[in-house]
Amino acid sequence: MTQTPLPPPLHDALVQLLGPSGVLTNPADTEAFCVDWRALYHGKCAAVLRPANTAECAQAVALCHAHNVPMVPQGGNTSMVGGATPDSSGLAVVISTTRMNQIHSIDHADLTMTVDAGVTLKAAQDAASAQGLLLPLSISSEGSADIGGILATNAGGNNTVRYGNARELALGLEAVLPDGSVLDLMRKLRKDNTGYALRQLLVGSEGTLGLITQAVIQLQPAPRSRETALCAVENPQGALNLFAAFRKQDPSAIHAFEFMSGTSMALVNNLIEGASLPLEAPAPAYVLVELASPRADDSLRSLMEDILGSALEEGLVTDAVLAESESQRQSLWMIREEHAEAQKRAGASVKNDVSVPLAAIPEFIADATKACEALIPGIRVAPFGHIGDGNIHFNLVQPEGADPAAFLAQDHAMMDTVAAIVRKLGGSFSAEHGVGQLKTYMMPSWRGGAELQTMRQIKAAIDPQNLMNPGKVLPPA
Amino acid sequence: MTQTPLPPPLHDALVQLLGPSGVLTNPADTEAFCVDWRALYHGKCAAVLRPANTAECAQAVALCHAHNVPMVPQGGNTSMVGGATPDSSGLAVVISTTRMNQIHSIDHADLTMTVDAGVTLKAAQDAASAQGLLLPLSISSEGSADIGGILATNAGGNNTVRYGNARELALGLEAVLPDGSVLDLMRKLRKDNTGYALRQLLVGSEGTLGLITQAVIQLQPAPRSRETALCAVENPQGALNLFAAFRKQDPSAIHAFEFMSGTSMALVNNLIEGASLPLEAPAPAYVLVELASPRADDSLRSLMEDILGSALEEGLVTDAVLAESESQRQSLWMIREEHAEAQKRAGASVKNDVSVPLAAIPEFIADATKACEALIPGIRVAPFGHIGDGNIHFNLVQPEGADPAAFLAQDHAMMDTVAAIVRKLGGSFSAEHGVGQLKTYMMPSWRGGAELQTMRQIKAAIDPQNLMNPGKVLPPA
Fold first, then answer.
1. Entry's InterPro entries (chains A, B) (predicted)?
2. Nearest by CB to B294, which of A250, A451, A453?
């Protein structure tokens, strides 16, 4: 009756543990868990397990461990790098966290939220917001991505410039280790120097060292004032100089500092309805800056006006518009958020989620633009992204009217061209998205030697049978 | 001629590598490296090695590794827990980082400093300050403690409430692993999701996984405005409520938020010259709050006055004094900083560097006070510390006129009494100071099970011969 290669004793034990609806084996039920949302990877699995709490999860993992069955942790299935998709062998089980979805408490003294892994980021944000607090992490997939997944991948997003990545927000953590034992690090302590940083190690390990089941997330008071401006600048160096001007006055006021190239902005203005440029004329580059503070006084407005006033006088900023209402603010953010969609409508594109030191950004964009234009005449180099973190989405859009397939056939040439320049400048080939299975092949050349060796030693020590999310992060030895 | 148990070929190779002054074997030269500054531990060593750069350090470690010689990394030798002191066997070498003391660069675009492990924290702070920047970590031993040591122990201090511990400040890291290979993580990237968090793991591992040789430290713009106030409150809950009031308005303005019990303050006022209480009358408890911002406008002053005004009206604060000059500010800080000295002058004392969740602080202080007073009638319970981080130095001073030795003979009873309450409340037995050799015995009961097991697995994987700082952090299996 069951359509699974799981050993019958394991299958029966799992059904007894998790109930019939906790063990999916029908391909119609499991298929959605075996394909990533970008449909880059089509895997197979022996079953999808849906534990409802940590105890069930731990017992399920222990059973799989005893039977030597590989396990693929999966949250909202929004990985950009195939990090939560099983391979094509069909031997692994997917362990879905979606049933573990309780928000246990919000602590106003500690400003923390205790939450299960399967709660979506959006649900957690909303729960904080309903109590006048802010969960300061925002990514475009937040409606589906869950807390376990954002921690497993150390998610970033628009507010990293102010609050750091997911790792910095996790004050406590609980995870099930590959052998089914429970690692309980659910402490609410800002200072605790009692041994190795296991919490930080689990965060960002992409499910290869354990399955995150719960977390204590640090919250912030909700902003009571906010100022948002779209600014025209001459080039990336101008954007960086403007960032430095804001940072010099008050780094903690900068909640977002986003860069958009003129090329990418033109695509938005031309291809997205209702996204016309609210400035007098197109510019070579743009910055969207948002200041925010829990303070209700008007000092943020004067800070914004003072800095932009000086920048306009000096010619650093050539034009700027300040949001005068929440709806104007949302319009400015819409312009930023539509860059991915506009690029999609412009034809085939190749994405590079890279980071470099701030000082190297102008050289990176100039050199990489030149190299890509030399590689493919007519290519539209359309970078944008979180310039305050040094994180540029260096996206490449096909020449107008060109054949998309022919363009995409050169994707590796384009990616390698960009990567070579990133590397020369001390950057990273994955700023936000992680390694998953898409980028494991890059690990030996970029993170080789003692670094990769140490990662392998840690993996082998914690997961000697290589059962937890095999094939992710670390390439085959 | 040499007075060392080192195998002659190893000794000769080390002298050839490091020069005669780089290999100390004369007991008169090595003795200072074998005793911790509190003189709790008197160890011996086979030699003190003093490499001048990473390459020398790596080769020296490789040589010791090949000869199976244990190594004890040592920076400024300011550990509070014997973390940098060799054992009494005399078999280990101490590897001192004091010769590796170059500040390589300060990057104004990235706001980072690239620095050798052996640079003292004070020297690094001064170098940042000379360029209008702030290295936002401050501890009382900063004149001796070096960058390698503060990272190895994940140091905290007065500004953790705003900027986090040392771990949060280290953007890049270089370390020599136990086999002599160099782990180069000297990247200046705020976003880099390419594998396991080795940097975070090395930080706080107290030299047991490798020897930190260089770091990239994140800096901040120097404050241009600062407001400092000493406030009288009714009890620890009052201090916490005041903290919440400041945090609700602007967490990022709070550079320090320190608690002092009335008992501890009375010792300072009575025993330290020039440290009279600048308030009308003694109170049950006090808070020293410092706001700071790189903004030069006057909004910080109004923020301080608004919050304290409301707090005085509500009776949350019963009296307060604001520093009206830099010298008044320093006087207020002097009162805070003299607590350790005042307790020393009051006789024998027992120190507990503990943390609990913020919400649990009032219960912790009340219960631990009651329990200690029941244990030793007349004991002076004199807590103070970084209440904004939940970190209380719960110090116990002998009864007036009692015999110091008799009091100290009960130190374990006192520590265990305090620890039991900390543990019940989900706290930590070492908030700032680490484990070293002083507290390894507490690891199995506090961090046992999967947590200690995982730490042991990592240690065995990276240092299978147990050569790097053996006997620290992890107790014998």
1. FAD-bd_oxidored_4_C, FAD-bd_PCMH, FAD-bd_PCMH-like_sf, FAD-bd_PCMH_sub1, FAD-bd_PCMH_sub2, FAD-linked_Oxase-like_C, FAD-oxidored/transferase_4, Oxid_FAD_bind_N
2. A250
Assigned CATH for A347-431: 3.30.70.2740
User: Average pLDDT, whole number, for chain A?
Assistant: 96
Instruction: Name the CA dihedral angle for B275, B278, B283, B288, rounded to a multiple of 10 degrees.
Output: -80
Candidates A185, A429, A451; nearest CB to B185: A451
CB A190 within 8 A of CB B389: yes
Sheet with strand B380-381: strands edge to edge: B349-350, B396-397, B380-381
Task: Among B61, B193, B307, B363, pick the best mutation site for testing chain A contact (most A Cβ within 10 A).
Answer: B193
For domain B103-221, give its CATH number from 3.30.465.10, 2.40.50.140, 3.90.1300.10, 1.10.1370.40: 3.30.465.10
Of A252, A454, A458, the CB nearest to B177: A454
Residue A9 carries which side chain, given as an amino acid letter? P
Residue in the block written with tokens 């980071």: A355
Instruction: Give the count of Cβ contacts less than 8 A between chain A and B.
Output: 285
**Quick check: B196 and A204 CB within 8 A?**
yes
CB-based contact A196 B205, cutoff 8 Å: yes
pLDDT of residue B296: 82
- d(CA A321, CA A312) in angstroms, rounded, equals 12
pLDDT the model gives residue B5: 86
Residue of B nearest to A222 (CA): B248
pLDDT band at A1 (very low <50, low <70, confident <90, very high): very low
Please report, for residues A206, A280, A329, A347, the alpha-carbon distance to residue A334 in angstroms, rounded to integers and kept in the order given: 30, 18, 9, 21
Say how far apart CA B4 and CA B9 lie, in whole Å: 12
* C-alpha–C-alpha distance, residues B67 and B49, integer Å: 15
| Burial degree of B31 (CB within 10 A; 0-12, 13-18, 19+) | middle
Give the residue among A144, A157, A18 at the shortest CA–CA distance from A84.
A144
End-to-end CA distance of chain A: 39
pTM of the predicted structure, to 2 decimals? 0.97
**Average pLDDT score over residue span B192-205:** 98
Topology, domain A225-340: Alpha-Beta Plaits (3.30.70)
Pairing of strands A47-49, A93-96: parallel
The candidate with the shortest Cα–Cα distance to B426, out of B365, B355, B353, B371, is: B355
User: Could A359 and B107 be called an inter-chain contact, meaning their C-beta atoms sit closer than 8 Å?
Assistant: yes
Q: Could you say which DSSP state residue B469 is in? A: S
The closest of B283, B269, B241 to B341, measured between CA atoms, is B269
Residue matched to tokens 């920047």: B133
Which residues sit opposite B322 in a β-bridge? B229
CB spacing of A454 vs B244 below 8 angstroms: no
Q: Where are the beta strands (DSSP E) in B274-359?
A: 285-293, 317-322, 349-350, 353-355
Inter-chain CB proximity A428 and B194 less than 8 Å: yes
Fold of B8-96: 3.30.43
Q: What is the ipTM of this complex?
A: 0.97
Give chain B positions within 8 Å (CB) of A57.
none
The single residue listed with the structure tokens 């085959």 is A476
Residue A77: both structure tokens together: 């299935």
Closest residue by Cα to residue B46 from B22, B76, B24, B63 = B24
